[in-house]
Design a protein that fits this description.
Length: about 350
């Protein structure tokens, strides 16, 4: 039977949904308010059981329920990204009822975001989040159909592959050494030689470094998986110079924005233009491709789940292959030598 119970100073509701699944949910500090929440919830369940939807539910209300039920179950990075998408973009635009969302409204959203100079890739990520929400709304019987089931992602521009020349790298490292933070130079050296993402480097602790076998263990990668990254001697030498901290962290930057700002200032001092912190990862990948690292190996080094991500460096591998082919000439005609009779 549905009811209320008190736990940790608050009232919780106990009920079964239209599919017979039991739920226990924190409702309110007040018993009266909690009872109203329970009655409203039971009305919704009854409507779902007889096929009547609550057409007055706002997208804002549904999005909050979606965040509560979905975000705690997914990776922390994805949860943070989806929360930002919902709060900053989806909720302000889709400010009507949940049922009012349509493919036409999605097209209006795309037009608006393009006017705001958002890239197609960014818009695709935002609408992929919305598509997940609509699938959940359908599964939870808040909708009878997915209103954007026919939406297809826009074709995106090729991924960015800006990488620094050796001269630019030297100037940049020198400029990082001039930074007010003594941690910027080793941070950039590790990014260039390990190919790690910004967040992965910031999360590193001394315990995650195998100082004997020269590897770093990434607790959680972009794909929500643990990764083991081999490090060369240049990266290890930079890490060995870092001071030992009580909290165990290697790089005590406040957040990603802090280190990115410091990096941009170093790029300005070094006169290295159009170069972002993530381009250190592209530089790592590009030089490996030029050195002849095979695609399978490069994919493993970059920890790409999709081979298409690694394919962006294939043209550099082609350069290496051309040089290798040109270096070997078998059976070529040799220059004729004069036959001199003495």
């Amino acid at each position: 039977m549905p009811g209320l119970f008190r736990k940790n100073g608050a009232y919780w509701i106990d009920f079964h949904d239209a599919d017979g699944v039991r739920h226990r949910r924190k409702a309110a500090a007040s018993k009266r308010v909690a009872l109203e929440v329970l009655n409203h919830t039971l009305d919704q369940v009854a409507h779902q059981e007889i096929g009547i939807l609550d057409t007055s539910m706002s997208f804002a209300a549904f999005s909050k329920e979606w965040e509560r039920r979905v975000l705690p179950k997914i990776g922390a990075n994805t949860a943070t990204r989806w929360h930002g998408i919902v709060v900053n973009h989806l909720r302000p635009f889709f400010n009507g009822t949940l049922k009012a969302i349509s493919l036409a409204r999605v097209e209006d959203y795309i037009a608006k975001r393009l006017e705001e100079n958002a890239t197609k890739a960014t818009i695709n990520r935002e609408l992929s989040c919305l598509r997940h929400m609509m699938k959940r709304a359908l599964a939870w019987k808040n909708l009878t159909r997915n209103p954007i089931a026919e939406w297809r992602p826009m074709k995106e521009a090729p991924g960015r592959t800006r990488f620094a020349s050796e001269e630019e790298i030297d100037r940049l490292i020198d400029a990082c050494a001039e930074s007010r933070s003594p941690y910027l130079r080793p941070f950039v050296i590790l990014a260039l030689n390990g190919g790690l993402r910004r967040g992965e480097i910031l999360s590193l602790t001394r315990a995650q470094i195998d100082w004997h076998n020269c590897t770093a263990t990434i607790a959680q990668t972009k794909n929500s998986e643990q990764g083991h990254v081999p490090l060369n001697e240049t990266a290890m030498a930079a890490l060995r110079l870092l001071p030992i901290r009580i909290d165990g962290r290697l790089f005590p930057f406040k957040d990603g924005h802090t280190v990115s700002r410091a990096f941009r200032r170093a790029c300005n001092r070094a006169n290295v233009s159009d170069f972002r912190l993530h381009d250190c990862r592209h530089t790592f990948a590009s030089y490996h491709a030029l050195a002849g690292t095979q695609q399978r190996g490069l994919q493993a080094l970059l920890r790409h789940r999709d081979t298409r991500m690694t394919m962006r460096y294939s043209h550099l591998t082609d350069v290496y292959l051309r040089q290798a082919v040109d270096a070997v000439n078998l059976g070529a005609d040799k220059p004729a030598t004069a036959n001199v009779n003495t």
